[in-house]
Design brief:
The chain has one domain (about 5-140): OB fold (Dihydrolipoamide Acetyltransferase, E2P) (Beta Barrel). About 5% of the residues lie in helices and about 45% in strands. It has one helix at about 55-65; strands at about 5-10, 15-20, 25-40, 45-55, 70-85, 90-105.
Length: about 140
C-alpha cells in the first residue's frame, strides 16, 4: 500500500501553530491548488481545490515562522481522514487532511519583503525553507 500526496499551491491563510498537551508543536493551514482547462467551446475554465494541511514537530515550528498567506509552497505528505461528533447537531463529521512530511517554499519573496530573508537552521529538517535562490541569466529557460 502506498499513500503519498504531492501538491504545489498557495497558502489561503497564515499557519495556526499550537502545542499539544504533551508539548509537541502542530501547525495547520489551507492550501489552494488550481486546475485550468478549455471546455468544448474553447472557453478557459478554472477550478480551485482547497486542502487542509497539518504539520507536526519541527515542521510545524518552521511553518509558523516562514509561511504566510499567499506564499507558494510544495507540500509532500500523506492523506488521513479524521472524524468527530459535531457538538451542535450531534452528527458525525469527517475531514480529509494532508499530514505534511516535507514542505518547501517556492517562488520569489512574498510581496513587500525586503532584500534580507531569514534562513532556517540548516540540516534540521529536510526541505526546510531557506533563502530563495536568485536565478542567474543562464538558469532562465527563455
Amino acid at each position: 500500500m502506498y499513500n503519498k500526496v504531492l501538491l504545489i499551491g498557495h497558502l489561503g491563510r497564515d499557519p495556526e501553530v499550537r502545542s499539544t498537551p504533551s508539548g509537541q508543536q502542530v501547525a495547520n493551514f489551507s492550501l489552494a491548488t488550481n486546475r485550468k482547462w478549455r471546455d468544448r467551446d474553447g472557453n478557459l475554465q478554472e477550478q480551485t481545490e482547497w486542502h487542509y494541511i497539518v504539520c507536526w514537530g519541527r515542521q510545524a515550528e518552521i511553518a509558523g515562522q516562514y509561511l504566510t498567506r499567499g506564499r507558494q509552497v510544495f507540500v509532500e505528505g500523506r492523506l488521513q481522514t479524521s472524524s468527530w461528533e459535531d457538538r451542535q447537531s450531534g452528527e458525525k463529521r469527517y475531514r480529509t487532511e494532508i499530514i505534511c512530511e516535507n514542505f518547501q517554499m517556492l517562488g520569489g519573496r512574498p510581496e513587500g519583503a525586503g532584500r534580507s530573508y531569514p534562513a532556517a537552521p540548516a540540516g534540521e529538517v529536510e526541505g526546510a525553507p531557506g533563502p530563495p535562490a536568485e536565478p542567474e541569466d543562464d538558469d532562465i529557460p527563455f
